[in-house]
Amino acid sequence: MSKYRYRTLRREVRARFTVKGSRFIGTAAPAAGEKAAQSFIERIREEFPDATHHAHAYRVMEEGALVERSFDAREPAGTAGLPMLQLLQGRNLSGLAVVGTRYFGGVKLGIGGLTRAYRQCARDCIDGGEVVVRERLRYVRLLVSYEEIGALLRLLESLQGEIISTEYGAAVTVIAALPHRAAETARKRFDEISRGSGRWEPLQKPPGS
């Protein structure tokens, strides 16, 4: 996969199954960054507050670097979050978080049984969802005059950029998402449009993340 693209799920997916009386609920969802992944994990915990365990794993981009985390949620070390993370790695998936929720059924599953069950949480979600290829984005805050805003909007459209917000004050401030591959071209053309007087401010994270 190109460094400009990554594989993830199109939308949130859930899977349920039972192993020796223990009920497992796997939930996976796209996550733009670490804050989005953590918010998703907390939402699942709140949805199933009486569950015995909420293990999780995620692989997301954070400030241009791939961040990988796993959490076993009081299951034996390496039996819950890690198997889910390893499955994401093996499938070359990122921009994605998975939660494995367990209701203990009274029978211990052992190290092997737990590892298989939590891996199944991730596998069933991925197999039951739609894997898509997304393009990595770069986020920028752009400041231009009112005379230049029309040219800027046309530039963003031509490069398949997305306008996230626009604020009109003494000048116009636009927050936009640009395909990573087009960002340098956009920067050069932005300088031409604004004749060097505009302001281009890279953002480390998606707005609101």
Descriptive report:
The chain is of the alpha+beta class and about 210 residues long. The chain has 2 domains: about 5-135, Impact, N-terminal domain (Ribosomal Protein S5, domain 2, 2-Layer Sandwich), CATH 3.30.230; about 135-205, Alpha-Beta Plaits. The protein contains 5 helices and 11 strands; from the N terminus they run βββαββαβαββαββαβ. It has helices spanning about 35-45, 80-90, 110-130, 150-160, 185-195; strands at about 5-10, 15-20, 20-30, 55-60, 65-70, 95-105, 130-135, 135-145, 160-170, 170-180, 200-205. The strands form 3 sheets. Strands 2-3-6-4-5 form a 5-stranded antiparallel sheet, sandwiched between helices. A hairpin with a 3-residue loop joins strand 9 and strand 10. Helix 4 (about 150-160) packs antiparallel against helix 5 (about 185-195). The longest helix is centred in the middle third of the chain and has 19 residues, at about 110-130. The mean pLDDT is about 90.
